[in-house]
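Q: Convert this sequence to structure tokens.
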Amino acid sequence: MSEPAGPQTDLRDAHQAETRRRIVQAVNELLADEHPSSISVPAVVKRSGISRATIYRHFPTKEALLDASARSIDEGTREWLGNETPVPGRNLGEFIHRSWSELAENLPAVRASHLPGLGRELRQRRSARRHRDAEGAMREAGVDIDTPEGQRAIRITLVLASSSTLLEQLDRLDQPVDEAADDVVWAIETIARAVREAQQRR
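A:
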């Protein structure tokens, strides 16, 4: 029988969570200067001040470290969203604003995910979750996603809400994050409304 949770268990869990956070933060900082393929555990040890044994206990492989980095760049937004779906006209605006503000705070890791090679792998690790978000958003907005136009709306939503679009707006259009988020929310909500209304007229 497992022991009931108590102050010591809570303290241990908090310590482990802080250790993981420091390790992932060190990886994200290293990504500001290095290609993901160049990241090494000794470099993470040096940057984080955490022993090699402890790092391997939390992340047994380099791939696990990169996975954690890929997940961390919008972790706070995901915790806020919980099991909810980001729905146009409901909570999509706050979701995009929170997500993109968090991405902007982790730009080195975001930029690393756009590099050739491992960067593509980092993006693919987030793609299934993003696809579920887009499907849920359109479905909850009243779009029949089992139609060609419904699938098109999902694909365009994925493009609009992607970190690639955020980088385009920040780097090439020189937009503030809030303005970039407003543009994307407007576009997704406009598409959802247009597709839903077209389907209802049939």
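The chain has a mean pLDDT of 84.
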